[in-house]
Amino acid sequence: MISQYNIVSDYHQLSSEVAGIVSTQIKEHPLSKLCLPTGSTPLGMYEDLVMLELDWRLVITFNLDVYLMNVDHPESYQSYMKKNLFDSINIFPINCHFPFRPTSAFEDKIAGSMGIDLCILGIGTNGHIAFNEPGSSFKSRTRLVDLDEQTIQDNSRFFDSVDDVPKQAITMGLGTIMESKKIVLMANGKHKREILDEAMYGDVTEEIPASILQEHDNVIIFYCD
Ligand code: GLP
To answer: Ligand 1: does its nearest atom lie under 6 Å from the Cβ of 151?
Structure first.
């Protein structure tokens, strides 16, 4: 049961609400461990976070997922994070983690940091969270995955052509994400409404990975048209 499903008026409010939650987390707990998303939806939140000029010196971040590609490529999630957040705040690069292989070592890093305090998520049009595509086990951990055809099509807008979209990724698992103490999911656009409602109010099924969030006791959803 999702306790908080907020429909906000516009993208500006979506971004500032979630940035506000991140800001409160960091101010109240300077040693916070955050799990961070990529994609188009969180871009406004990152802009707001940069403007807030928070003190990130003790914060540790874990990104949800990475494409299996050259990390220096402009569309790699490592490049995305540098460009949209890390290069503009006072976080230490050594505290910014991305999924890597062996994936068990990445899991050990999360466990060694005593777990994630706040995880920010987006949602794919097929109901994926991170790169946990439909059919992913609810118990899954960080691992190498093949991307769904739908995800490749959706993400082709960031590349010159659909053939340039990486076909594989390393993603945190659903089991890994569910261990976060608090989760905030942000969704932007009418094309996300149906899958979001199905995930939040429909059956909890591995065919809709985001539906697992119904079983977490501290999830907040923000949606705007
Ligand atoms: C991407 C990412 C997800 C993200 C989702 C939605 O493929 N791996 O973490 O939440 O798709 O992206 P967007 O916000 O661009 O719609």
So the answer is: yes
pTM of the predicted structure, to 2 decimals: 0.97
> Residue 1 above 80 pLDDT?
no
- For 148, phi then psi, to 5°, come to -65, 150
CA distance 37 to 208: 18
Closest residue CA from atom 10 of ligand 1: 122
- C-alpha 43 – ligand 1 centre gap (Å): 11
Span from the CA of 100 to the centroid of ligand 1 (angstroms)? 19
pLDDT in tens, 116-145: 999 999 999 999 999 999 999 999 999 999
Rounded CA-CA distance 25/119 in Å is 11
| Residue among 95, 126, 206, 225 flagged as catalytic | 126
Q: Is the torsion defined by CA of 224, 187, 46, 158 positive or negative? A: negative
Q: Which helix (DSSP H) or strand (DSSP E) does residue 7 occupy?
A: strand 4-7
DSSP string covering 55-78 = --TT-EEEESEEESS-TTSTTSHH
- Dump pLDDT digits (tens) for 143-188: 999 999 999 999 999 999 999 999 999 999 999 999 999 999 999 9
